[in-house]
Design brief:
Elements: H1 6-17, E1 58-63, E2 68-75, E3 94-97, E4 107-112, E5 136-141, E6 146-158, H2 164-168, E7 174-186, E8 189-199
Parallel strand pairs: 2-3, 4-7
Antiparallel strand pairs: 1-2, 1-5, 3-4, 5-6, 6-8, 7-8
Length: 205
């Protein structure tokens, strides 16, 4: 994985949160259907540049306390350079933003999921807000290993007050962020975000 500047990561991830977690269509657009307001330079390697092998990436996410056992897809950038969100499908899946650290690597690994998926009903993160401090999360990686975390805190914040530095800022250890929408519906989207902050078990409660 080619390193990405913190500013580029924050800008792209913030654009993802504008895309809506309920009735969005994975286009990088806001719940109102307006284009995302923020873009970021494309962090993908340019043509001809050697690709350096990166760490093993997540392929499955398990959260026993809320019955989540889902494949994890990779999310990159949409053509308009806003970050992708998982597609709205009957078989909803979580998505790892591949320009964030892989689970188990130093830094906050970011996984997004829907709370609802339009005509298909509930999304994979529909019960994310029910998690409590100490609940276990397992990210299974493509090399057969797993990165384990425990929930440190769960917050619901207005999208307008999204805590960018707390979510995407540098950390001195592996951490995990799970993000979906929450709060009251506003049109075809939601007013708030639900954010789970998780840490390695040795650092947890």
């Amino acid at each position: 994985m080619r390193p990405v500047s913190r500013r580029a990561l924050v800008t792209a991830a913030t654009a993802a949160l504008l895309a809506g977690c309920g009735a969005g269509h994975g286009t990088g657009r806001s719940p109102s259907g307006e284009p995302g307001r923020t873009t970021t330079p494309d962090p993908r390697p340019s043509a001809g540049r050697a690709r350096v092998p990166g760490p093993a990436v997540p392929v499955r996410l398990e959260i026993p306390a809320i019955g989540v056992d889902t494949p994890v897809i990779r999310l990159g950038l949409a053509p308009d350079r806003t970050v992708q969100v998982p597609p709205v499908t009957a078989h909803d899946r979580a998505g790892w933003y591949r320009h964030s650290p892989a689970p188990g690597q130093d830094g906050p690994s970011v996984i997004l999921g829907h709370v609802t998926v339009g005509p298909y009903g509930d999304g994979v993160f529909r019960h994310l807000a029910r998690l409590r401090r100490g609940d276990r999360i397992v990210a299974r990686l493509e090399n057969g290993t797993a990165a384990e975390f425990t929930v440190d805190s769960v917050r619901r914040v207005a999208k307008a007050d999204f805590p960018t530095d707390e979510v995407y800022g540098r950390t001195g250890r592996p951490e995990l962020r799970l993000i979906t929408c929450g709060g009251p519906r506003t049109g075809d989207g939601y007013r708030d975000n639900v954010i789970v902050f998780a840490v390695p078990p040795s650092a947890g409660p």
